[in-house]
Sequence to fold (341 residues):
Amino acid sequence: MTSDLLLDVRDLKVHFSAKRVGLFGPRRTVHAVDGVSLSITRGATLGLVGESGSGKTTTAQAIMRLVPATSGFIDLDGQSFLELDAAALIQARRKIQMIFQDPYSSLNPRRRAGAIVREPMDRMNIRRAEERDDRVAELFQVVGLRPEQRILFPHQFSGGQRQRIGIARALATEPKLLVCDEPVSALDVAIQAQVLNLMRRLQSQLGLSMLFISHDLGVVRHVCQDIAVMYLGRIVEQADRVSLFRRPLHPYTSALISSVPSARIGSEPRQKRIKLEGDPPSPIDLPPGCSFAGRCPYAVDRCRRDRPELKMLPSGRRVACHLVDADERPPDQARLSTQAG
Ligand code: SF4
Fold:
């Protein structure tokens, strides 16, 4: 029987060695991804959001096995993905394809658009060779390009059209999961909406699952049913889109939402807005306790001492904050009621 779960990632860590300070300084480790667990069911879309440097792209690259995981477990469609040897990995990659951030650099400028889209089918021996050109023409139509544009080179397309070529290339292997890394951040706002609408349409028509990475909550809200928020290599909150925007529980999520005017529509008016001061601490020298404590207006002594685990709440949401209680109130409301009591 096929499980509903397509991707299951548990306690994924990606640590790098950092340069020593001075000749005899201690060895240091960058905790780029520091214990991420997430899952995606078939046909669902999970957004992964956070500031630059939060580890979301490294998480995606580790899931794709483009960077080595230090430890953890990844199950993709019933296969233990991290344990596959090179030959098995090539076949398994049919199921998981990536759409890259930059439609300018991710396409080979010397190849025609049709050859770029056909290439994964040739490399993975998908369909009979004589059928592949017809499939390329079909894929061009699926993503809103004209089949006769197959003979053009990437520089003859606009940015939005190039991203459509990237999407067609990803679809060529008939994947079950698309990993989209900031797929519209390099595009003009008007073009972003067109590409996002295309992705939503493809998701519903083809039943695709997506891991959608973005620093922009407004973009994620447009595409994803569930959203996980990352801060300094860890997920600090995960919820369905409606609950997350209506009532963010983690102070970092509140701050992110309050920084995007369009994202505030539909959020609770009582939800206190937080302006983030300062930068995240270095992922090299992680402070003890909650990594958000240095920027959090609600931090108490315990926050600087003990690291909050990502706990499951009765509603199924997950949050890593000592002050979010079982009644699922954000720290400002929980603290107010404690003071009133
Ligand atoms: Fe703020 Fe403490 Fe919650 Fe961290 S654990 S988000 S510092 S209240």
In short: The chain has twelve helices and twelve strands.
